Amino acid sequence: LILYFKSQESITILVGDSGVGKTSLLVQFDQGKFIPGSFSATVGIGFTVIHPIWDTAGQERFRSVTHAYYRDAQALLLLYDITSKSSFDNTRAWLTEIHEYAQDDVVIMLLGNKSDMTSARAIRRDEGEKLAREYGVIFLETSAKTGLNVDEAFMTVGKELVRRSVQFPVEPRLHLHDVMQPEKEPPGCCGFSRN
Ligand SMILES: Nc1nc2c(ncn2[C@@H]2O[C@H](COP(=O)(O)OP(=O)(O)OP(=O)(O)O)[C@@H](O)[C@H]2O)c(=O)[nH]1
Fold first, then answer.
1. Could you tell me the keywords of this UniProt record (predicted)?
2. ipTM score
3. E strands along 42-190, which residues?
């Protein structure tokens, strides 16, 4: 699970089974490139200076830590791997957990990742669409490898957050300086004003 802090003090987190491509998707969005191979296990909560990202590696033993973060998320990207039926089946459990711990008005997006792997596909696009309809969430198929729909996914979430903030303005719940070490923040990073 990764926490991704973006402009306007919105917090987006990526969730989904291990290996579905959460880190790869974020790297593709952030740096516009695909770095093949698994990322070395990020233990506990890590930090990258490029953008403020917390990565808790999506491992079971960190679950209690990650539950606390659901509360502060304005948006959630829930990923499955289109070549892995179990990762797709588990999205229901993730959605249950999200509904239990996240805010009621959180923006949720279901992403079928690795859509470039057409010959190994195990989940049809319409199965993803159907699940998304059932839960009333937005759906896209993405590829962290080719970049397909990666920007669109983050942009769609951003637009939805703006739309909702116009309709239902709320005070930000978590300030960046509550969770970041000031000396690690690059000047002008992230469009936040510190107050
Ligand atoms: N072909 C293809 N491979 C991908 C894609 N996204 C990720 N991968 C590969 O899938 C593997 C897992 O990707 P990660 O980004 O580490 O997955 P993760 O969800 O962050 O995994 P955890 O950190 O264990 O939770 C790596 O070998 C990636 O290179 C994709 O869109 N297409």
1. GTP-binding, Lipoprotein, Nucleotide-binding
2. 0.99
3. 53-55, 75-81, 107-113, 138-141
